């Protein structure tokens, strides 16, 4: 599903994706319309602009991902401002691509987003990872009544460690000599146990626990 308030841009993106074999199930031109239509058609991937009338893109993302954690959101924005990128990721976006990207780059980003990989315009991935490292140096104190951390299996922990190191699902599958689907299943199980929404949050969780250095 493609969400952008500029009709020509929205139609061009939808046309490029459809020509590449993607099933564009809906489009929307403002925030409230995006929420209504996404809830009706339940897309696998939402290509979302941030600057929308009626409701900002980050709020659209927060509402939709909150209601359906399996939804993948790829922000496609003209803004490369650090604050916009971080706000989008914190609202549940899986990736962030600038509108200066070419059609092939967009199509590749949508496919990778659908597979659960975090996709960022070069330079922005380091920004997000750096922010999570900063947060990890001063984690919030646990509440006295906070439940114990969920128990992950040895294989889930192993996959989580490789995710934290930045490996793709394909690379993890090759490293552990298991199928791509098995890696996806382990990640989905881990997300469920940890009550996280997407792979970006999973990377943050792993970094907070030093798994990227293990």
Automatic annotation (TrEMBL):
<dbReference type="Pfam" id="PF00196">
    <property type="entry name" value="GerE"/>
</dbReference>
<feature type="domain" description="Response regulatory">
    <location>
        <begin position="1"/>
        <end position="114"/>
    </location>
</feature>
<dbReference type="InterPro" id="IPR039420">
    <property type="entry name" value="WalR-like"/>
</dbReference>
<keyword id="KW-0238">DNA-binding</keyword>
<dbReference type="Pfam" id="PF00072">
    <property type="entry name" value="Response_reg"/>
</dbReference>
<dbReference type="InterPro" id="IPR000792">
    <property type="entry name" value="Tscrpt_reg_LuxR_C"/>
</dbReference>
<keyword id="KW-0597">Phosphoprotein</keyword>
<protein>
    <submittedName>
        <fullName>Response regulator transcription factor</fullName>
    </submittedName>
</protein>
<feature type="domain" description="HTH luxR-type">
    <location>
        <begin position="145"/>
        <end position="210"/>
    </location>
</feature>
<dbReference type="InterPro" id="IPR058245">
    <property type="entry name" value="NreC/VraR/RcsB-like_REC"/>
</dbReference>
<dbReference type="InterPro" id="IPR011006">
    <property type="entry name" value="CheY-like_superfamily"/>
</dbReference>
<dbReference type="InterPro" id="IPR001789">
    <property type="entry name" value="Sig_transdc_resp-reg_receiver"/>
</dbReference>
<dbReference type="InterPro" id="IPR016032">
    <property type="entry name" value="Sig_transdc_resp-reg_C-effctor"/>
</dbReference>
<feature type="modified residue" description="4-aspartylphosphate">
    <location>
        <position position="49"/>
    </location>
</feature>
